[in-house]
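Lecture 7, part B: from sequences to assemblies.

Below are the input chains for today's worked example.
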Amino acid sequence: MKILLNNREEEFDKESFSINELLILKKLSFKMRIIKINGTLVQKDSYDNTYIKDSDNVQILYLMSGG
Amino acid sequence: MKFSEIKSHLAKFRVGIAGAGGLGSNCAMALARSGIGTLVISDFDLIVEANLNRQFYFANQIGMKKTLALKENIERTGSATRVIANQIELNPDNIPLIFSGCEVIVEAFDMADMKEMLIETVLIRMPGIPLIIGSGMAGWGKNEYIKCRKIDDQLFVCGDETTEVSEDLPPMAPRVGIVANMQANLVIEILMKK
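Predicted structure of the full complex, as structure tokens:
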């Protein structure tokens, strides 16, 4: 499947996977973040049971301390 | 468009600012000078000496409540902006009440966990209200990495999205000020389209 990850097209072998699988696959380990799929916020406790499908728009925003 | 026309348009709006530290104080000053009608500013903190390297306060204000000192400093510019100062710690229950009626909300916290709490609360409980985040502004230099990114119609992020504050990478006036003013600039861009 092809997805849009932070405005960049990425291709994967699988047909679908959970957000947690994506985070492991892409080695995205930084914990302070906001994830939206097709404009909808995914809450932290749903990372295991929320699935990403073909042509989804996934936005990950990292929150850095400082201000 | 003349500045007087811009100002009278911006005077119709209310903007929420969550935090009155480096981002919030500088962003609020820029918005007040631009003529925003009302600023709703929330913070629970008092001014300490360490704040003065980047926050819009003065040495004789040390010990004062940040929201009240900021209101005072805005008034000193002669701006007609009305400031509603809430000396309170924001949480998921009070955020929708405090910022109700705001056309745009600026996230201006320093701690990442507070940023996350505010974003989740606004996205879930205040759908459709544009929220402008500051993320990544520690240290100095690297002008070319500071940018503004539109996530979607509701969520925007200003900053380099990379540098986190640490002992060797403290927050400093130039980069924090750049991001705060980018946030203010984006608030104005959003409101000028209304």
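Note for the exam: The interface with chain B takes residues 32-34, 36, 39, 41, 43, 59, 61-67 of chain A (CB under 8 Å). Keep this in mind when comparing with the next example.
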